[in-house]
Amino acid sequence: MRISPIKAQAPFLNYTAQAEKFSPSSGKKDVVTLSDEGKKMQAQTSANTSSLINSLDDFMDGAGKDGVITLDEIRVFGKKHFKQAQDILAKTLEQLNIPSDRSMTISTDKDGLVKVDSDLSVQDNNRLEAALNKHPDFQQAFTKASSSQTLLDAAEKHLEFAEAYAKNAQAAVSQYGIGSSSSGEYVLEYAQEQTNLVFQNKFSLMG
Question: How many domains does the chain have?
Fold first, then answer.
C-alpha cells in the first residue's frame, strides 16, 4: 500500500533494492546493491510499513483498499471528523448553557483526556471539560481530525522536499531542516462561534 497525492500518483513510501549512478571518471555506471543483511532489513522495514498502513484501513473509512491512499482521501476523512467534533462541541455548549461568544482552546493530554483552556469561569470550564470527556465520540473525532491533518502535513512536506532535493540537495536539506526536530500538536480553537484546527508549537525552557 502506498500513500500518494491525488494528481501525481507517486509513492509516498518507496523502497529500492538496487541503485545506479554514472561515474564521470570511468564513463560507466556504478551499480550499488544491498547485502543479504541489508535486503533482510529492507524486507522487514517494508513489512512493518505495510502492516502499519494496513491498520489504517478502518481508520480511513476503508481508503487504501485499492493499494493507494491519496491525500484527497486523507483530507476528506479529516474534514468529516473535524465537523463531527465541531458539532459535538456546539451541542455541548448549548446543553450546558455556556454562552457561544466565549473563547477556548481544546487539546488532549498524554493519557488522551480532553483538556479545556478558556475564558470561562473555573466552574464552567470544568463542567465543559467533564462533559467532553464523557461524550463517547468527541475525543475520537478530535483525534482522527488532528491525526489526519498531521499526516497531511507530513506527506505534503515530503513531496515539497523531494522536488526541492531533486533541484538542489544541499539547499533542500537546509531549507526543510532535515536532522532537526520540532514539537507540537493540533488543538481545537473556538472563538466567536467559529471552530478551527490549529497547530500549536510546544516550547520547553532549559534550566
Answer: 1
